[in-house]
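Quick one, T. Sequence first:
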Amino acid sequence: MPIFQYTGRNNQGQAVNGNIEANSADAVATQLLNTGITPIDISQTDKTLQTNQTSNINFDFNKNKKPTLDDLALFSRQMYTLLRAGVPIIRAITGLADTTRNQVLKQTLQNVRAEIEGGHELSTALSHFPDIFSHLFISMVKVGENTGNLDDVFLQISSYLDREKNTRDQIKSAIRYPIFVLIAITIAMFIINMWVIPTFAKVFAGFNAELPLPTRILLSISDFTVNYWYVIVAVLLAVYFGLRHYIKTEKGHWQWDRFMTRIPIIGSIVLRATLARFARSFSMSLRAGVPLVTGLALVSRAVDNVFIGGHIADMRTGVERGDTLTRTAASTEMFTPLIIQMLTVGEETGNVDEMLEEVADFYDREVDYDVKNLTSAIEPILIVFIGIMVLVLALGVFLPMWDLASAAKG
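Structure tokens:
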């Protein structure tokens, strides 16, 4: 897309100039007038903004990251404020594109502005960037355009994204601690096998006696680690990258998401956090006026879990066949009886969105409590595991010494 250089005067009569990306000089003039600038001269340059921005992006990796939930939540909140104040959409997006720090979002908003100037609706322009704006985000904007409540929709999206970030942080907190402990234990065992046990092996070699079975096993493992450590590292790296590649496949992604909901202790936290995400996003879509079946289809892709998303898609199929939302939810066997009862009340009173919001709050409270007590729940298991490991090492190291002491006394 070409760049146009312009000169003009603002509302105070001061001379201003700059560069703007647009499809034509008329689009530049329209954009300047919308921002309160009267154009005097507009001329096209030989460069394109995309090339210039690409050059900047290559040298600033921090700004070249994909927009985070915080970035999108801030954008939505600012759009709500600007639209509520009566600022035109093009002018609002132009201002936000100029002030955002994320270069990817900046480029995206500039392209969205160009699409709108070309005659497209905002939702259509956003749909051209599915990697930035989710299907749920775009559908909500579409509903806002159709109902004339676009500002309120952006406020709902902002609130949803804030809570979505909180849910993701809770899931990460639940997973981070045990992973860190397992990595620390693995490193400790590697150090013991590489440097500690070989030191004792030199001592045992001077005994000139048959060593106990636990000691022989430890020495064999240590010898293998010392002689073939590069093989162990290569296997671990192959397993890691192989698992990452497998998870990217459709079957692997489904099995991994299913596994994450069934890990002892942690799985229940991940499951309830994901169900809270489902309930809140579904409630938001219903409150905005999205049809029930369409809302289920959108939410099934928004929960960020293929396994649970498949169950939500099954709920959509059941509703399409004429079944009630409560019966389809019960058939998935994911929801507690209390949640099913709340959905029943919601259908009977016509307040499903409010009941779903209550469900999301209920799950959030449970997840928050479990995450805070996760350490106390995992510590006994880790203590037992470390105790067994220390016992095996102690037996392997001290049994030969005890045998030698007994033989000396005899």
